[in-house]
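can u do me a favor
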């Protein structure tokens, strides 16, 4: 999940468990899902401030990724994980769990404030750059460590969660609250999406800097759904005009056989990645047509990709050995994964089941299934008599009904895998061992719990309201890399501070600095924008462009116009060693207000660091 975590697995007390829990495995699947759903929802609540019993010190409305503080350290609040979790909570609230509303209200206030927190990705004003920051301390303060940033899925996912809640409020006579309190938060996020969707960023696994299928898919939904909400509230949506272009770009991820989950990057992978399952279930619409260009679960391309991805894991993990092709397996991020040893994940395994439940629901809602040459191989594993043709709904003995039963059974078999490797107390970690099935990595992962609940919803026939995928504006015939400048205003009605800014100029700091793995580069300087010489508030640079040919560290930030600043680069060493400073102070005169972006091209001067060997 996290690029910068330790490589040692977290097993602790779990070592005493057998690979498969005899308690949970002995239950029938229905009983397991019902019991685990309640455990998972409580697991989520235990990880949300201020009253979550496993996350003391977390602020109200902040969703903590995991109570794990070391190996790996997940005791932070991630914008993406929080938004996905809150979308589940909103859905559960709409399904009747009214006691969850206080969590939603706390989240609204927390996110309004969080939008304005200056961080290493940038500031809220003037250009919204800070909205691309992936994670914060659990009290909502900035996290200043080196990280894969920016990550551009968070604003889209937060907007989706809040749009879903706003639509509920509108239907229940609370349009004023949706418009005055929640829309300003949504508007900032949609502005960010409309302005930066065509810029690269890090993927949801925080490892690949490029263009991510999961991110783009959710960006399109956010803009399309946001436009519909804006119309209902009679407000303007800045950035929503970009939805057709985002949809056009989304088609670029299909290579004719499967979805290449990250493009505009050359990392040596196949591109088959669990992000291509998580995306379709995040944009699932029960009313969608299966040929929708939004890549719904029932779409032929999505199904072909599902088979291609799942088949890669059949041979990747020892615990999957011997499982036939019509049965589910343990699923991880991607087969080339090495993080924490490269194991299957609970949340992706249950996501595979949710994907299939979604697809069945969509076919049943349309009363028809079209099998074409693209999706044929997916169905052949499950229903050998299938052919390329149209299947209309019929009685229980009809081919349509038999295919639905086969796909549903296939979905259940993925849940059975999760059941097999869930410990007796129902706790869900991040991963489980590829050879033994023992849980490992971060314990009590909030996303694992949230993913289980949403899967259980779909299995029970509970589907979120349509987000209007039938009403989307079609993509243009030719894609264009456009953007719309954002409009960023603090959501003060929801509790955000009324932050202001003087005129600022975009400054890019590039420095060639050869580093060892685990060493990081910061820029610190005399102005408050550069930390006022306090390394704790310095700006970390990113190594996304680092190569053997050019050891580039870079960051794009904003500095106050018309001032002269001194700055220098600093090496953050591993193993608790002292930082290493350059031997020179550099100077920069920031141009006057209205000037163009300035790029500083520097090379490290002075002593270098060395690994502490820890």
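np, heres the sequence
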């Amino acid at each position: 999940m996290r690029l910068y975590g330790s490589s040692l697995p977290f097993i602790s007390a779990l070592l005493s468990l057998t690979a498969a829990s005899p308690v949970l495995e002995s239950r029938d699947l229905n009983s397991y899902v019902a019991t685990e759903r309640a455990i998972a929802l409580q697991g989520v609540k235990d990880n949300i401030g201020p009253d979550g019993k496993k996350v003391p010190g977390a602020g109200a409305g902040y969703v903590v990724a995991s109570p794990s503080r070391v190996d790996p350290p997940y005791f932070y609040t991630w914008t993406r994980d929080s938004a996905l979790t809150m979308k589940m909570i909103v859905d559960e609230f709409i399904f009747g769990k009214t006691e969850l509303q206080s969590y939603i209200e706390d989240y609204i206030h927390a996110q309004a404030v969080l939008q304005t927190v200056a961080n290493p990705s940038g500031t809220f004003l003037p250009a919204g750059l800070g909205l691309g920051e992936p994670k914060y301390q659990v009290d909502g303060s900035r996290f200043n460590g080196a990280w894969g940033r920016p990550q551009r899925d968070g604003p889209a996912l937060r907007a989706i969660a809040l749009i879903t809640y706003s639509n509920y409020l509108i239907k229940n006579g609370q349009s004023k609250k949706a418009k005055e309190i929640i829309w300003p938060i949504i508007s900032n996020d949609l502005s960010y999406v409309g302005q930066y969707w065509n810029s690269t960023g890090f993927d949801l696994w925080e490892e690949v800097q490029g263009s991510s299928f999961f991110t783009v898919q959710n960006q399109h939904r956010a803009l399309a759904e946001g436009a519909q909400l804006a119309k209902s509230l009679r407000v303007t949506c800045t950035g929503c005009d970009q939805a057709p272009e985002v949809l056009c770009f989304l088609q670029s991820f299909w290579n004719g056989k499967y979805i290449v989950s990250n493009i505009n990057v050359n990392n040596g992978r196949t591109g088959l990645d669990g992000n291509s399952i998580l995306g379709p279930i995040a944009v699932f619409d029960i009313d969608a047509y299966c040929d929708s260009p939004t890549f719904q679960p029932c779409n032929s391309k999505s199904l072909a990709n599902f088979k291609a991805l799942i088949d890669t894991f059949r041979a990747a993990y020892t615990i999957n050995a011997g499982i036939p092709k019509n049965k589910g397996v343990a699923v991880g991020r991607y087969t080339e994964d090495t993080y924490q040893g490269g194991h299957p994940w609970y949340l992706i395994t249950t996501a595979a089941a949710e994907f299939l439940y979604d697809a069945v629901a969509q076919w049943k809602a349309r009363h028809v299934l079209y099998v074409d040459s693209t999706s044929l191989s997916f169905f052949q594993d499950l229903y050998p008599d299938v052919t390329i043709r149209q299947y209309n709904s019929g009685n229980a003995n009809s081919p349509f009904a038999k295919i639905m039963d086969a796909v549903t059974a296939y979905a259940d078999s993925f849940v059975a895998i999760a059941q097999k490797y869930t410990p007796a107390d129902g706790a869900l970690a991040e991963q489980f061992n590829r050879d033994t099935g023992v849980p490992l990595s971060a314990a009590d992962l909030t996303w694992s719990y949230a993913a289980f609940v949403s899967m259980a919803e779909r299995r029970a026939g509970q589907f979120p309201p349509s987000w209007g995928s039938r009403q989307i504006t079609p993509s243009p015939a030719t894609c264009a890399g456009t953007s719309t400048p954002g409009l960023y205003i603090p959501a003060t009605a929801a509790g955000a501070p009324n932050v202001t800014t003087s005129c600022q100029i975009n400054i890019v700091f590039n420095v060639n600095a050869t580093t060892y793995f685990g060493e990081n580069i910061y820029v610190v300087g005399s102005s408050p924008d550069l930390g006022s010489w306090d390394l704790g508030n310095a700006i970390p640079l990113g190594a996304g462009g680092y190569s053997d040919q050019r050891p580039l560290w870079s960051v794009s930030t904003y500095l106050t116009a018309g001032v002269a600043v001194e700055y220098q680069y600093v090496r953050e060493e591993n193993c608790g060693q002292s930082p290493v400073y350059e031997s020179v102070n550099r100077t920069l005169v920031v141009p006057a207000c209205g000037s163009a972006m300035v790029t500083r091209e520097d090379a490290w001067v002075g002593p270098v660091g060395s690994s502490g060997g820890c």
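The longest helix spans residues 175-196. hope that helps!!
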